[in-house]
Request: fold
Amino acid sequence: MTPVYGPTSPDQVTGSTQQQLRDRYLVEDLFVPGAVRTVVTHYDRVVAVGAVPTDAPLALEAVPEIRSEQFLDHREMGIVNIGAAGTVVADGERHAMASGACLYLGRGVRDVSFESDDAATPARFYGFSAPAHTTYPTALVEPGQGTVRELGDPLTSNRRTLNQYIHENGVRSCQVVMGVTQLHPGSMWNTMPSHTHDRRTEFYVYFDVDADARVVHLMGQPQETRHLLVADGGLVLSPSWSIHSGVGTSNYSFVWAMAGENQSFDDMDGVAIVDMR
Reply:
């Protein structure tokens, strides 16, 4: 059965237990070897996909909740490989994807499947899909070949490289904005100072997290913050009213992806750290 995450309000965070927060905002089993996992949400109608092919290709199938014959009949999707090398096949065209590569698939692509180069060290494909009103062409971006922004400072432990792949000045899409951020060695904080953006939902997938490490992801309203401890491969669902910052026990990487009312990366409502609670 496909997990479905309904909309929530800030009032549902106040007084919630830690397990309730994890059940509502954290997906811990998106990447299962030999399977495609699909998570349907009512946050801007975003659907998340995790695919870990091993000894055989895996096909992307439509789920009943989107009421389409094919998954991308009325949708678009960005895909980032957070595992070892693999290939995405879209309508017969093969797209080899190294770790960190990003592939955009537009509305109307019918047949999509996932493969790993080596079953022993499989690829891990993360897909972020939103409704689309028109079609843009398929586009592949190699790791580090998007719009690169260097942010932060070692003195504040937040030196990071941000790769924008799908955005208004890069790979075109209807709604999806997607990229990868890598924390430098010795840096652990991301998205500080924090922000919200009422016009968009944002999902985070954390990776390059050691087995004995965790990322402490901060969420909730700026004056009513909560936290989630996230392991490698964890997917955090961040409603538009929630902050989405974090600090790791060591450096790490994450895929950030957004959908909603606009595609301007810098459209955000900043919150000074001294004003957070």
In short: DSSP finds one helix and 24 strands in the chain. The chain has a mean pLDDT of 94. Residues 4-275 form a domain with the Jelly Rolls fold (CATH 2.60.120.10).
